[in-house]
Amino acid sequence: MSTAKGKKAESVACVYLEKNGYTIIERNRRLGRGELDIIALKGEILTFVEVKGHKNRESSLDAMHTDKQRRMISAAQTWLGQHADYANTQCRFDLIVVTPATIKILSPRVEHLTDIIRL
Fold this sequence. Notes:
Oligomer: single chain
Radius of gyration: 14 Å
Number of domains: 1
CATH class: Alpha Beta
């Protein structure tokens, strides 16, 4: 996925999250080998959100391979180590799949999968 397409998918995901009661804490945070696309808070839950904007759902899901999950976990642990105010906050990992509309005038399809990684 190109950087421009990725940024657009992340922007769509942020709008979706905000409409659903999340507060965006940070975006595109690179930490070591990993990157956190979106860090958001809803109620008492801090959510690390990976955004995939592939042409179809299946390729987005395939991109969430074991190595990608490990890098997300490592980046989240590093981020939490730098933000002591969230040390006791419940955390989870979500995936938002943004699939382009097949007709230009329609909005992209957004699918929010919660709690995708179990520690």
